[in-house]
Amino acid sequence: MSIQQTSRTVFRIEARAILEGLCIAWEKGYRQLEIECDNTLLVESVLMGSAASSNLVKLHPINVYLKRSWKTRIRHIPRSQKMAADRMAKCTYDNQFGLKLF
To answer: Where would I find the RNase H type-1 domain in this sequence (predicted)?
Structure first.
């Protein structure tokens, strides 16, 4: 797999993670949400509104969720500042249901 293909794959996986997080938060009744992502291109795509007109499968639904009546904030966070989140994510591998809320 080339570097370009790998980058596209990572972008899609991270977009899917944001979309699934938005879905879960909405279904659980949360109406204030802060999203942190270490993918600069993804954060910029969502913030600049290119998610609304994008042909990328996951960006349009992200934009639809963000337009709902709730308060959301998305921001870029450097990888070096998200080590705790990475460790928490690794804990979910032991969970038979695939989801762990902290």
So the answer is: 5-90
